[in-house]
Amino acid sequence: MKRSSLDTSTANTALIPALAHIKVHPLSRFQRRAAPFRQPAEVGYFSYDASRSLRVNCDSALKFFHPPPLDGVSNNLSSGFEDSAPIRYIARASVVENLDSLLATLKTTSDSQTSLLTANDRGDGRPRFCTWRGIMTKILTAPYSSDTWELRASLHKGTLYIMEDPLISRASDGFSETDRGKKMTYWGYRFEGLSTLDHDPSTLDPDALHAAEVDRVQTGVVDTHIQFCSVIKTRIGDHDIFMGAEVDCLLPNADASSAKQQPSESTSKPATSPSATSKLRQHRYVELKTHRKIQSQSQNSSFLKQKLFKTYFQCFLAGIPRIIVGFRDDKGFLTKLKEYKTLEIPRMARNELQGEEGGAWDPAVCINFGEQVLSTLWKCLAQRNQELCREGEVEGWQVVYRVRMKNGSASFDGRSAGSQSRGGARGSWRGGASGASGAKSLMSAVNEDAEVVISDGIVGDDELIFVPKDN
Ligand code: A3P
Ligand code: MG
């Protein structure tokens, strides 16, 4: 195959022939018992520090949940937003993550001391996927979402790697760039800072705890470079999936406080091995969210159909059992906290949305749709890669396929949709301007022609290829 002459910086994917189309509607095709989903198990983790350096199997960035103040003064989520001396908001430029940190962790993580992605444990011939949790969330929530997205996929040694397309995802939804949007983004991060501590509160004496509580209110810095990510193995249907997922914090537990490695920054031997640590604490992971306080039935419906729907899949996929929502008023003051058990959300949504137009979302539809996308991807790309590599002129990892969600009136490159959302480890969603004004219900925003289009591969250049060949 000849190297493609396609200019990848302006590539119009509509010009590349499609290998497959997966229609979203009618949803009745997916309304059956859900494909088997394997309980996600953490196989490793990593932290990014303030300089964004990667620390494999290090949990220095993992914080402990501690309820935020709700006193009418310290509960101001805007505090620190405009401080300049010292600066209290260090925002990382929004960039699409390649898979490097996930792969680095998988390489060092295995019971047999060799990479989980190498052939030694591949006896079952099962298709494998390696991606970020945010991307799996996009795929699974597509049946009830009007978002558009575009991904890159490459196949190498029996594993299909998927990342978000940076060219497309750089496009902003517009709202995040407004003053209000920037402030609301800060509110979400500030909520994380006001709800967590660096140390397990159950191990601090009352004075130290009080000092930590005062510090987080008065001097706490929001630095979005710092992140803790869990690396997870799960399975949907026949497909093993390795995923990286950001985890916001850990629920303190006096009995199991040693589950965080001590000391995390030093070079001395950790108190527990990474895999033992994972087993001890995965059930204590917590996802934090903010949401505007709910004052009407329609606001409750949109919370259940949008925020909680996507947060459910964000957590379900990563095995995060708890979600703590900080409700706020329009000025950004926290008013209430509410905890949701991830696995109880579908039933809750079904009960509360009963009788409403469109009803509730059905998690089985999402899982079965996701399974169909993975199966089709695997089938098409495995066959096509074999054809393209037959002559030996190119290797599998050099071929890059595009996978895009065509939805509504969005153009092929998705820019007009106004509903880009992040697909990295964070995997959070703000569906266009919905964060600000409460967009129309996603159930009714769904376009009947929505489809996932898998485009034929092109031989990538250095900018396009994202799978390291030595992997
Ligand atoms: P909220 O989701 O509570 O509003 P996450 O919940 O995934 O851990 O993300 C934490 C916060 O990051 C979000 O808080 C929000 O403030 C910000 N964020 C995440 N995705 C975003 C996006 N696509 N646009 C703007 N802000 C985003
Ligand atoms: Mg969060």
From TrEMBL:
<dbReference type="InterPro" id="IPR039039">
    <property type="entry name" value="RAI1-like_fam"/>
</dbReference>
<keyword id="KW-0540">Nuclease</keyword>
<dbReference type="GO" id="GO:0046872">
    <property type="term" value="F:metal ion binding"/>
</dbReference>
<comment type="similarity">
    <text>Belongs to the DXO/Dom3Z family.</text>
</comment>
<feature type="region of interest" description="Disordered">
    <location>
        <begin position="412"/>
        <end position="433"/>
    </location>
</feature>
<feature type="compositionally biased region" description="Low complexity">
    <location>
        <begin position="263"/>
        <end position="279"/>
    </location>
</feature>
<dbReference type="GO" id="GO:0005829">
    <property type="term" value="C:cytosol"/>
</dbReference>
<feature type="region of interest" description="Disordered">
    <location>
        <begin position="256"/>
        <end position="280"/>
    </location>
</feature>
<keyword id="KW-0539">Nucleus</keyword>
<dbReference type="GO" id="GO:0003723">
    <property type="term" value="F:RNA binding"/>
</dbReference>
<feature type="compositionally biased region" description="Low complexity">
    <location>
        <begin position="414"/>
        <end position="423"/>
    </location>
</feature>
<feature type="compositionally biased region" description="Gly residues">
    <location>
        <begin position="424"/>
        <end position="433"/>
    </location>
</feature>
<dbReference type="GO" id="GO:0004518">
    <property type="term" value="F:nuclease activity"/>
</dbReference>
<keyword id="KW-0378">Hydrolase</keyword>
<keyword id="KW-0547">Nucleotide-binding</keyword>
<keyword id="KW-0694">RNA-binding</keyword>
<dbReference type="GO" id="GO:0034353">
    <property type="term" value="F:mRNA 5'-diphosphatase activity"/>
</dbReference>
<comment type="function">
    <text>Decapping enzyme for NAD-capped RNAs: specifically hydrolyzes the nicotinamide adenine dinucleotide (NAD) cap from a subset of RNAs by removing the entire NAD moiety from the 5'-end of an NAD-capped RNA.</text>
</comment>
<dbReference type="Pfam" id="PF08652">
    <property type="entry name" value="RAI1"/>
</dbReference>
<dbReference type="GO" id="GO:0000956">
    <property type="term" value="P:nuclear-transcribed mRNA catabolic process"/>
</dbReference>
<dbReference type="GO" id="GO:0005634">
    <property type="term" value="C:nucleus"/>
</dbReference>
<dbReference type="GO" id="GO:0110155">
    <property type="term" value="P:NAD-cap decapping"/>
</dbReference>
<dbReference type="GO" id="GO:0000166">
    <property type="term" value="F:nucleotide binding"/>
</dbReference>
<protein>
    <recommendedName>
        <fullName>Decapping nuclease</fullName>
        <ecNumber>3.6.1.-</ecNumber>
    </recommendedName>
</protein>
<keyword id="KW-0479">Metal-binding</keyword>
<feature type="domain" description="RAI1-like">
    <location>
        <begin position="38"/>
        <end position="409"/>
    </location>
</feature>
<dbReference type="InterPro" id="IPR013961">
    <property type="entry name" value="RAI1"/>
</dbReference>
